[in-house]
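BUG: 3D viewer hangs when loading the predicted structure for this chain

Environment: internal workstation, default settings.
Expected: structure renders.
Actual: progress bar stalls at 90%.

Input used:
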Amino acid sequence: MEKKALGRGLSALIPQREVVFVKNSAEAIIRIPLSQVKTNKYQPRTEFSKEKLNDLVNSIKEKGVIQPVLVRKAIDGYELIAGERRLRAATMLNLVDIPAIIKDVNDADMLEIALIENLQREELNPIEEAKAFERLTTEFNFTQDKIAQTLGKDKSTISNAIRLLGLAQKIQEYLSKGIITVGHAKALLGLPAENERYRVCNIIINKGLSVRETEKLVDRRRTEAGTQKRPVKHDNNLDSIAAEMQQALGTRVKISHGKKRGTIQIEYYSVEDLNRILHIVTAKKT
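Structure tokens produced before the viewer hung:
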């Protein structure tokens, strides 16, 4: 793995020079059939600007593909590492082939390189960026420290980005589309209840609140919620039920009971652990 090169950015991976096709070079730029290139399954971007794509199409019409795409060899052709916009534009123009550099990288490197390319071009929205960070931690066992070091960012930047994924899907969509900002989203995370986050988010959009105004509104809502809360009498029976569930599921269980209803919180520590718990629960049902 080329961690140091990744830390320096794409300039260490893709030659920043006018394209010159050379042979028998460690970084040879060759032309490969467009039909043999598959898209990157680890591409962090899910939204592509039609306007920017059309601009690239017009540029390629006039000057050709100036910067090669980055690929790795696959069983039946090539798999794209970086350069999906160039690949899409070339496909729209029905080009036969495209200039490329072939790299020998693993899956983790593919995600890192694609992430770095998009971050350096500032083309990822906050949710795409957060999901990419999360994939590095869940699929490739990266620590937040390691991600920060690789990308040249502060650890707090990584952790704050991943926290955004705790917001409801609709609020994430608002953030992805730029309807609210990261500052707004961070303020919303200060509200524990999802329905309250929705209410405040709608107020932000309808009234055009600034981040500072949103923070003040969140503070008021939290204060009001705190004064309205009434202490709930502790039920020892719930502790015994939680303990019994913990023993059955092999993980921590927390039960919160209100006046008429409550919640059960079951912790899991990996996808495999979640599947294990699901197997236990479904086996009990059958």
